[in-house]
UniProtKB/TrEMBL annotation:
<dbReference type="InterPro" id="IPR014001">
    <property type="entry name" value="Helicase_ATP-bd"/>
</dbReference>
<dbReference type="GO" id="GO:0005524">
    <property type="term" value="F:ATP binding"/>
</dbReference>
<dbReference type="GO" id="GO:0006281">
    <property type="term" value="P:DNA repair"/>
</dbReference>
<dbReference type="InterPro" id="IPR002464">
    <property type="entry name" value="DNA/RNA_helicase_DEAH_CS"/>
</dbReference>
<dbReference type="InterPro" id="IPR027417">
    <property type="entry name" value="P-loop_NTPase"/>
</dbReference>
<keyword id="KW-0378">Hydrolase</keyword>
<dbReference type="GO" id="GO:0008094">
    <property type="term" value="F:ATP-dependent activity, acting on DNA"/>
</dbReference>
<keyword id="KW-0547">Nucleotide-binding</keyword>
<dbReference type="InterPro" id="IPR038718">
    <property type="entry name" value="SNF2-like_sf"/>
</dbReference>
<keyword id="KW-0067">ATP-binding</keyword>
<dbReference type="GO" id="GO:0005634">
    <property type="term" value="C:nucleus"/>
</dbReference>
<dbReference type="InterPro" id="IPR050628">
    <property type="entry name" value="SNF2_RAD54_helicase_TF"/>
</dbReference>
<protein>
    <recommendedName>
        <fullName>Helicase ATP-binding domain-containing protein</fullName>
    </recommendedName>
</protein>
<dbReference type="InterPro" id="IPR000330">
    <property type="entry name" value="SNF2_N"/>
</dbReference>
<dbReference type="Pfam" id="PF00176">
    <property type="entry name" value="SNF2-rel_dom"/>
</dbReference>
<dbReference type="GO" id="GO:0016787">
    <property type="term" value="F:hydrolase activity"/>
</dbReference>
<feature type="domain" description="Helicase ATP-binding">
    <location>
        <begin position="1"/>
        <end position="191"/>
    </location>
</feature>
Length: 421
């Protein structure tokens, strides 16, 4: 009930405030490719023939009347998601006694025991996102698989854009499962497959149940799964696919002239510090695998096993890929205590914090590369490294110290007591 009333309130809001100004082309892309789009426009388009605006950061144009005059507007999925969230959050308020005669209010009292009543209401002077206030001539989603989950805020925000033409650019329209494709079809307004029930009936359910087309006599009408065959026919009608070996009809040559590919495998030896860290992590991984095998829980924990293998691969690339926010906390803590002249012992689960004690690997912390032109001109590097989960390792090297910071809950009381004494 609450979802239905919220959708009704948002529909009223969209009819009254969204898509009111006619605009040009909106390109929604990841932040890492925004600079590339600007460079491509400058390279392939005659100078001053197209006006381009990067809708990102504090300097972006927030007036939809001015924004619609740009030929090309570049923005990111995060900006679109944040502005859509701000729009929808203002529609929900809490009220104990709504006025029954107010037509702008939609009340949801799904539970009589609740003391308060959920009230959805369009404010008198609401905030309207400039991106959603414009009815675009064309909307392009670069790396469109970012909206593969149909229930996420980012996907719903993309659905809410008003446009006459819609494009999805992606090299992987299906990433994890076939239903990832539905979200793209919904954004593209491919009727009737943009309806979730229709998708499940004609593609989703037949594919997952492995249903095949049969005649009345039980003979196969066509090879393969019905759902998969329907998806193939659908993609042939709506998808433009460019392949390296594709022949241009005008020149009778391949559309893209690429040099031959050569693959060279070079085996590298890990440094002494890196090898010790890897051997320690590998031994721990083998012990976990053996325990799961003995307990008969191996198949139930295959995701955890894949995660451990990923951590070993990251450790081969660089030890700091195992690091997370605990690196900064440990660095600050040890630096503060070092000023007081006290010995330190760090018992931790992260490779980076282990390296604090004796710098076994001897590698400096790499700085993250800036992702936009504005970040490239910044005086300090921007740390955009995602948080990583740490894999527990037993603090094997114990030495006398006055401080023993423990950053992990896995350490039991006996180990803590042993380190303290």
């Amino acid at each position: 009930m609450a979802t239905r009333r919220k959708d009704e309130c948002e529909r009223r809001f969209s009819e009254n405030y969204r898509g009111r100004y006619a605009g040009g082309t909106l390109i929604v892309c990841p932040l890492s490719t925004m600079g590339n789009w600007e460079e491509q426009v400058a390279t392939h388009v005659r100078a001053r023939s197209l006006s381009v605006h990067a809708y990102h950061g504090h300097a972006r144009c927030k007036n939809p009347k001015k924004l619609c005059h740009y030929d090309v507007v570049l923005t990111t999925f995060n900006v679109l998601q944040a502005e859509y969230r701000r729009e929808t959050q203002q529609l929900l308020v809490e009220d104990h006694g709504p006025e029954e005669n107010d037509p702008s209010r939609i009340v949801d009292s799904s539970s009589e025991e609740e003391s308060s009543t959920k009230l959805f209401q369009v404010p008198e002077d609401p905030y309207v996102s400039p991106l959603l206030a414009v009815r675009w001539h064309r909307v392009v989603l670069d790396e469109a698989h970012n909206i593969k989950e149909r229930r996420t805020i980012s996907s719903i925000a993309a659905y809410s854009l008003h446009a006459e033409r819609r494009w999805c650019l992606t090299g992987t329209p299906i990433q994890n499962r076939l239903d990832d494709l539905y979200s793209l079809l919904r954004f593209l307004h491919v009727t009737p497959m943009d309806n979730w029930r229709v998708w499940l009936t004609y593609i989703g359910a037949p594919f997952h149940k492995n249903i095949r087309a049969l005649t009345e006599d039980g003979e196969r009408l066509e090879e393969g799964n019905i759902g998969a065959n329907r998806v193939q026919r659908l993609m042939q009608s709506i998808c433009l696919r460019r392949m390296k070996q594709q022949i241009d009809a005008k020149t009778n040559r391949t559309m893209i002239e690429l040099p031959p590919k050569f693959e060279t495998v070079r085996w590298l030896e890990l440094a002494d510090g890196e090898r010790r860290l890897y051997n320690m992590a590998e031994e721990m991984a083998r012990n976990k695998f053996s325990n799961m095998s003995r307990n008969g829980t191996l198949l139930k924990n295959y995701i955890h096993i894949l995660k451990i293998i990923l951590r070993l691969r990251q450790l081969c690339t660089h030890p700091r890929l195992w690091s997370d926010e605990k690196w900064h906390e440990a660095q600050t803590l040890l630096a503060d205590n070092a000023v007081a002249g006290s010995a330190q012992a760090a018992a931790t689960a992260t490779t980076a914090t282990t390296a604090l004690g004796q710098s076994a690997a001897g590698m400096p912390r790499p700085a993250s590369e800036p992702r936009t032109k504005r970040e490239q001109s910044a005086p300090t590097p921007v740390d955009n490294k995602p948080k990583r989960e740490s894999v527990p390792v037993d603090p094997c090297s114990i030495f006398p110290a006055s401080h023993a910071p423990f950053f992990d809950r896995w350490a039991d009381e006996a180990r803590v007591h042993g380190a303290q004494t």
